[in-house]
Specification:
Oligomer: single chain
Strand content: under 5%
Number of strands: 0
Structural class: mainly alpha
CATH topology: Topoisomerase, domain 3
Order of helices and strands: HHHHH
Distance between the termini: 13 Å
């Protein structure tokens, strides 16, 4: 069961980073308007309905990872985690 928990946490973070990549302008606007990192994390969570961990993962997604190749790798990693969860739960 602990393995599934870790996989679910990784999946949540990967999905959050992909969400951030879909909304880069909003992410920048939130970061520029925030007084500090905790308020930025809270604002991201409020805007996208994400947990604190997922919101932090969204903030930590660097611009250098927004290219097609890295986004495809992120999607592949997410899909792999989903497959692992399906196998573990069946």
């Amino acid at each position: 069961m602990a393995d599934n928990t870790k996989l679910r946490e990784r999946l949540e973070m990967h999905e959050a980073q992909l969400l951030a990549a879909e909304h880069p302008h909003e992410m920048v606007d939130i970061m520029l308007a925030a007084a500090d990192l905790p308020s930025a994390t809270a604002a991201v969570g409020a805007r996208f309905g994400t947990s604190e961990v997922a919101s932090r993962a969204m903030i930590e997604l660097g611009f250098h990872r927004l290219n097609r190749r890295d986004l495809q790798r992120l999607m592949a990693a997410r899909d792999d985690i989903k497959d692992q969860l399906l196998r573990a739960e069946s």
